[in-house]
Structure formats: C-alpha cells, structure tokens
Design goal:
binds the ligand C=C(O[C@@H]1C=C(C(=O)O)C=C[C@H]1O)C(=O)O; 13 helices; seven-stranded mixed sheet; D-Maltodextrin-Binding Protein, domain 2
Length: 374
C-alpha cells in the first residue's frame, strides 16, 4: 500500500470510530439519569477495572495502549455524568457564596523584618497595610489560624532556587484559601555604612539564599561571605556596626530603610531573578477577573492515575502552570499533589471539572481563584 492509501484507510477507521464514541457518550448520559434516580455515585471503579482488564487482554500487543484509550473514554464519560448531575454541590455553594475581597485586611503576617523581600511583596499588593513579622513560615500560618493576622503572605517559588517545599507542606496541611499572588523581581545590592569604593569591601553578610544568588559576584571579587538570618537583618547589622570593609547583600529597599550606601547594584547572578508570593486567608474570596486557580489532591498508587487527572484538564482546554508533589508524612511514598492552572471558576466547564474531581479524588481541596500580578 502507498502512504496515501494507508492514510485513506486511517480516515475511514476514524470515521467509523466516531459514531461509536458518540453512542458511548449517549449511553453515559442515560446512565446518569438512572444514577440520579437511584442516588448512585458516578464512579464505579470495579466496573471500570473489569472493562480495562477485558479490553487489555483482548488487545494483544497493544494491550497497554488499548487500556489507555478506554481509560480516557471513561474519564470523559464520568466528566459528562458529573456535569449532568451537578456534582459537588458543596463546592458550588462555597464558590457562589465567596466574597470578592476581605472586609478586613489590616494586619498581614509575613517573613522577616522591615525591608525584607516579603515586606516588599506585601507593599506591592497592600500598600496601606500593617505588616506583622514572623521568623518562620509556620508562625505565619499559626497567626492566620489564631486570628492574630487577617491574612498571611508567603514566598512559594524562586526562578533560580525553585519551590519552597516547606511552604507547600504547610499549604497542604492547613488548606487555607489563596486569595492573591504576586511576583517580585529580586535585585540584590551590596550596601555599606559609608560611601566607599566597592573594592574596599572584603566581607559580605546576607541570608544564605541571597549569598548563593550572588555567588558569581562574590567569587569574582574574592569576597568572604557570611550568613545572616535575613537580608534585612544583615542590613541592620551593618548599619549598627559602622565598620569599614564589610557590607550587606540586601534589597535597595532594605538599604534605604537602614540608611546604608549602595556600593554596587544588581549583583545577582541572573537578571531575571524572580520570587512568587501568595496570600492566604481562612475564608475564600474570589476577586473579579480572577485568572489563576489552585487546588490539591492525593492519588492512589495506580498506573496512569496522574495521567488520567491531567487528561481531564487537557480535555477542558485548561493550561497547567505548576504541579508540585509532596510526600504524605504518615503514608509510605504516597503523595499529595498541588496544581496551579489558568482559569476562572465562573466558567461552567472549569467549575464542572473541579466539582467532578472533588467527587472523585481523595483529599481534594479547591484552594482558590485569584489574580496574579506578574
Ligand atoms: C457509565 C458508567 O459510569 C462510569 C463510567 C464508566 C464507563 O464509561 O464505562 C463505567 C463506570 C462508571 O465509573 C457506569 O456506571 O456504567
């Protein structure tokens, strides 16, 4: 057969498959009607397993591929049934009743001290707020839990250092709502107590993360690098000591705050050094024009289980922007997954998908739908 002839045959097969697929989807609709009358759940895992085993064993060398194809069809069939049955009533109600923004956002918990990068991100989002500073991420969640803070701001990832694992663990533990996000361009400068030639600086102090983000400059200038609890703490210490030959690596904001002189600007290794921050709240708020959705769930230890969830995002035309997996402490190598994607929950297809996943996946939580300042 020539290439054209084979392709002609493929076209004929596709034509023949389509009405069967549509007929199968119609059957799924009819099943949904009966399930509604009899109060049965959409998912019948045993029946699906039996279908997959039968198909897999009949498909010979393409057993794996056939299972995949049928598993996909069953995912679509369940998605259809969930939307017909209006699954996830509780989640639908929570989304419908969510406010647009908190009535009270006066006290916001964040990391560090005045002049920290978290403080800068906070000012970017809430210029007229009162920051409450904490020395660790757990303290921020605890402050939101106790009501000491109205909201909490946390760094979640850096363009060069990657995700902040500890923050994702806390997000998964508390499952508070995410109501806003922002990205801060992190630019480090070298700042000293007096206006001096940069070559006179021999020792620099900063947070280890900042020191590593400036490693090229430090090595090139043969500087002695010493760690501090934060970039702002380093700036404060340099201001107090008023000594020659030492400097802090910190933000321009921190240098100004502690009245230091900037001896060298932009000393970070990459010019595109960005950190993403999120804002957490005990209550759900969904601002108008929200374009980012976050959720989490866990998955059974089964071949293709993550693939099957991701396929449903693809089928709904949704674009994933982040996926993170964290081990569940009390289980052996079982994982919680955290997902970010672009979308708005007031879009029917998106809401239907969330409600379907809410019904089907263990430990599922919708975390929020918010705007993200880039
Ligand atoms: C169609 C049904 O609903 C679901 C979808 C299935 C399918 O597409 O074959 C099988 C079992 C259920 O999880 C059903 O219960 O038969």
């Amino acid at each position: 057969m020539t290439l054209e002839e084979i392709r002609k045959e493929i076209d004929q097969i596709d034509e023949a498959l389509l009405p069967l697929f549509l007929k199968r989807m119609e059957c799924a609709k009819a099943v949904a009607v009966i399930k509604k009358e009899t109060g049965q759940p959409v998912l019948n895992a045993e029946r699906e397993q039996a279908i997959l085993n039968r198909i897999g064993s009949r498909a010979g060398e393409f057993g794996g591929e056939a299972r995949m194809l049928y598993a996909n069809m069953m995912d679509m069939s369940r998605s259809l049934q969930h939307s017909l049955l209006g699954s996830g009533q509780e989640l639908r109600a929570a989304i419908r009743d969510a406010g647009v923004k908190p009535e009270k956002a006066e006290k916001i918990a964040c990391l560090g001290e005045i002049g920290s990068y978290s403080h800068e991100a906070l000012l970017q989002l809430y210029p007229h707020t009162f920051p409450l500073f904490y020395q660790d991420f757990g303290g921020i969640f605890a402050a939101v839990e106790s009501g000491e803070a109205d909201l909490g701001l946390l760094p979640v990832e850096n363009s060069s250092a990657g995700s902040v694992g500890e923050v994702y663990d806390l997000i998964l533990q508390y499952r508070y709502s995410i109501i806003a996000a922002t990205t801060l361009l992190v630019r480090h400068c070298m700042a000293s107590a007096k206006k001096v030639d940069p070559r006179s600086i021999r020792t620099v102090y900063s947070h280890p993360q900042a020191l590593s983000q400036c490693s090229v400059y430090i090595e090139k200038n043969d500087l002695h690098a010493l760690p501090c609890s934060s970039t702002a703490a380093a700036a404060q210490m340099i201001a107090q000591r008023q000594e020659a030959g030492i400097a802090a690596i910190c933000s321009e904001h921190a240098a100004k705050q502690y009245k230091l002189h900037i001896v060298q600007n932009d000393i970070q290794n990459t010019s595109n050094n960005r950190t993403r921050f999120i804002v957490i709240s005990r209550r759900l708020y969904i601002p108008d024009g929200a374009q980012k959705i976050s959720l989490c769930f866990s998955l059974p230890h089964k071949t293709g289980s993550l693939y099957s969830v991701l396929a449903r995002f693809a089928a709904a035309g949704l674009n994933l922007t982040k996926i993170e997996s964290r081990p569940i402490a009390e289980r052996n190598f079982e994982y919680d997954f955290y997902l970010d994607f672009t979308g708005n929950v007031h879009e029917e297809r998106t809401l239907n998908l969330l409600c379907a996943l809410n019904d089907e996946l263990p430990r599922f939580s919708f975390l929020g739908n918010y705007t993200e300042n880039e």
